[in-house]
Amino acid sequence: MQIKRDDIIFLDTNVIIEAERSGILKTLTGYFKNLTTVEKCLQELDEGDKSDPEYIRVDTKFLAEKLSIRSVSQRELAELLLKLNNEIALDAGEKELLAHINSHSLSLYFIENWKTPSSGRGQRPLGFA
């Protein structure tokens, strides 16, 4: 599967942080036409522990201009939680992003950040249908 410029690409908080950490966030926002996230992910970016030496500062005002920011209703959240049946632990931003995706009956794969003992960071595909 090849990602195209016009594809809708959903970004959670961790993906945005890692894109900023690696210096490609502005390149991504300039190239892809339909980058999307939810309000909760922007909120999580603003609420990070700024005293943490590993904290990555992300310009959320810039993101608000470049990304499509979606709001998620309580109904959308409830529908997702019923579908997942408490089988997957999600943080608030991931939950809202998946609730938005679920409400549009999209089938997709997304990249989730996770830590590996050797490299510290990695990626694994997680299916969601």
Describe this structure in words.
Helix 3 (39-46) packs antiparallel against helix 6 (92-103) and helix 5 (74-84) packs across helix 6 (92-103). This protein has helices at residues 13-21, 25-31, 39-46, 60-66, 74-84, 92-103; strands spanning 8-10, 34-38, 68-70, 108-114, 122-128. The two termini are 16 Å apart. It has one domain: Rossmann fold (3-Layer(aba) Sandwich). The protein has 129 residues and is α/β, with parallel strands linked by helices. A hairpin with a 7-residue loop joins strand 4 (108-114) and strand 5 (122-128).
In short:
With 129 residues, this protein is α/β, with parallel strands linked by helices. It has a single domain (8-128), classed as Rossmann fold (3-Layer(aba) Sandwich).
**CATH class assignment:** Alpha Beta
Q: What would the principal axes of the Cα set say about the shape?
A: globular
Whole-number count of domains:
1
Write down the Rg. Answer: 15 Å
Helical content class: 40-55%
Low-confidence sequence ranges: 114-129
Known CATH architecture: 3-Layer(aba) Sandwich
Structural class: alpha/beta
Q: How many helices in DSSP terms? A: 6
Mean pLDDT value: 83
| Widest sheet, order of strands | 1-2-3
User: What are the secondary-structure elements, in order, as H or E?
Assistant: EHHEHHEHHEE
Sheet with the most strands? 3 strands, parallel
Taking the alpha carbons of the first and last residues, their distance comes to: 16 Å
CATH topology type: Rossmann fold
Strand count = 5
